[in-house]
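Feature request, filed as a ticket because there's no other form

It would be nice if the structure record came with a short human-readable summary line next to the tokens. Right now we just get the raw output. Example of a typical job, pasted below so the devs can see what we mean:
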Amino acid sequence: MSMLNFSTSIPLSLYIHIPWCIRKCPYCDFNSHEAREAIPEELYVQRLIQDLDEHLPRILDRELKSIFFGGGTPSLFSPQGIEEILAAVHQRLRMAPSIEITLEANPGTIDESRFVGFRQAGINRLSIGVQSLQDNKLKALGRIHDREYALRAIDSAVRAGFENFNLDLMHGLPEQSVEDALSDIRDALAFNPPHLSWYQLTIETNTFFHHQPPRLPDDDILWTIQERGKTVIMDAGLSQYEVSAYASSGHECQHNKNYWEFGDYLGIGAGAHSKITDFEQQVITRHWQVKNPKDYLDPAKALTSQKVVLAPHDILFEFMLNALRLTQGVSADLFKERTGLALDIAEPALAIAREKKLLVNDTQVLRATELGHRFLNDLLGLFLPQHKNCPQNLSTK
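Raw output as currently delivered:
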């Protein structure tokens, strides 16, 4: 018998993964694959719809609050393909009246006519992967576009009528100076983006950079970039609402906020994963789709590769992993609503976090202090299942 107890509904989002890109970036550890031949768009769309149909019984009576096309490079697909996917979703699920529908776009794959086509297909928010606006940095990152392409893509998106868009910028790039980083921010802010994602380059395992690490700025430079960059962004009128996300009022990414607030999400497409609350069984399940696009496209193979029921200690850690990224944190009540658990189970770790001044000393909220955000990994480590203060003996049985 489950020890979880859900008494309220939980928001639901849909993530759609498009796994192909023109060239694999050396820092990327996402499930992306170079398109060495024509992308089988039509077949992939049909498998996505089949994927959605297989999961419908779990979510049929629920309303979608957001849809996100990620990758890979979703902008490689035609507007017609995106429209067909959205039409299938609309036929099968209820959508919130103000649903946010985002498409990731690579500046090297886009022009104004395609932006217009995506908007007509139903996309109402773009996330443009600029990364940098300096040619030497873009080359070091293995991007297929240069500064001119990026500037033209942003301008084209605005002229196509997109008022809600995000610009994706990275800092801590190979041999990047403080002024290099600030220059990227100022150039991006010149377009008055309602949302800016600004995050530090990290070297992930299973990437080219992991095997051949580039020369990155030292810690003092990274800290200066972080502090001065944050000031420039906020002086431009964007508020920080998450570790690496800034937005003008009302333009926070609803899809990502649902992740950070431990909402439910269905992931379809090669390598996508999901977190779904089963209110009848009172459990949270996670499942993964097969990663290799060839396997995903093979009708003889199952679309789902693995499914597990989350144990309470995993639920606790995943909630904290997401919620504590938010600058304002979340209410303590949200923990019970989204996990089905009493917050008492986390009390030993919470007490230590407050004592170390990593969490604010307020039992009504779960929010990292400025120190806690600076040492977020240390804070989250207190909630790891193997940590001595984490309740490892909890069971779903």
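Something like this underneath would help us a lot:
The chain has two domains: 12-258, 330-397.
The first strand starts at residue 12 and ends at 18.
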